[in-house]
Amino acid sequence: MVTAKQKRAIDLSAFPQGSVTEYSTLVCLACTFDIFTTQLGRAPRTAYSEIKKYSPTVAELTAPRAVPPFFDSDEKHPHCPYCKAARRWHARFDTTRIEGDKATAAARRKLIKALPRKDNQFQVIEAKSDKRTIFFDWLDTLGHNLDMEDDDWLLETTRAYLGRFKPKTHWEEVFNGVRAVRRSQRLAGDWGKEGTRLFLAPVVYSEALIVQYLVSRSHVHGGRTLEGRLTLQELIRRLSYGGYLDAKEISPGDQFEVLDQLIEKLSGGSGKVKLYYIVDRRDFLEKVKSVYARYAA
Ligand SMILES: [Zn+2]
Question: What residue spans define the domains of the chain?
Fold first, then answer.
């Protein structure tokens, strides 16, 4: 017998770390059946066949904050926040977003081809976006997953930035034991490690600061970075001293114009990106069936 975990895993090892994003959300089937039977007046059998066909939208599957009848929970035995239904009434949708580019094309085609499609167990949704939007999505997800009260969040953010923008290195391994991140002029490559300290080349370090600023600026005044709390003006001054603005040919202007250019450089700007969402519907299909059996009984 296959365990739930083995059964759900899809192999993403062929993809660079930064090109894949995983989302998970729960849907309450007690709420869903209630909508179909009470509000819409369907018989349980009709509700069952309609719910089975239901395909949530990409927005519903990937929202940083779930909307009813979806909800998010890290608890082992969560209850529906709307109707308090216990776990056996919940179904999970796992969604994997792959950014389409040349580096991922072959692996993506192979993965999608191998998915079981019987009864719509998996669904593939294609969408178009641009690099700037993807970058802000990534920042949102990062901000949502970070605990800014935790002292390690700056390390986490640095690692997330490196994973996305320098995907060829195994950062999990590199960060093992790292307690501090410093800027260094003396590196041959992007980074070096000495004991518990990770050293980053100036341009790389500067970009980590920009990401930290962007991810934390909505929570407090200014942004929090490896260099302490910085206003936008202070951030730009540091980037200027650090040589980042020259290295990236960012022209002087007021602080918001400079910020816009920083985001443009870091994100890749208006370049188009094709997105592939792979929706794992297996848990949903199983649970709809067992919940219906309970209704019909
Ligand atoms: Zn519910």
Answer: 4-121+281-296, 139-267
Question: 94 CA distance to ligand 1 centroid (A)?
Answer: 19
What protein residues have CB closer than 5 angstroms to ion ligand 1?
A: 28, 30-31, 80, 82-83, 85
d(CA 236, CA 131): 23
The rounded radius of gyration (Å) of the Cα atoms in the chain is 23
Helix (H, G, I), strand (E, B) or coil at 273: strand
Would you say how long the chain is, in residues? 297
- The structure's pTM equals 0.79
Compute, in angstroms, the gap from residue 89 CA to the centroid of ligand 1.
8
Q: State the distance from the centre of ligand 1 to the C-alpha of 165, rounded, in angstroms.
A: 40
Closest by CA to 225, choosing from 290, 176, 181, is 181
pLDDT in tens, 141-181: 888 888 888 878 999 999 999 988 888 888 989 999 999 99
Per-residue model confidence as pLDDT tens digits over 40-87: 999 989 999 999 998 899 999 988 788 889 998 888 889 999 999 999
Distance 71 CA to ligand 1 centre (A): 9
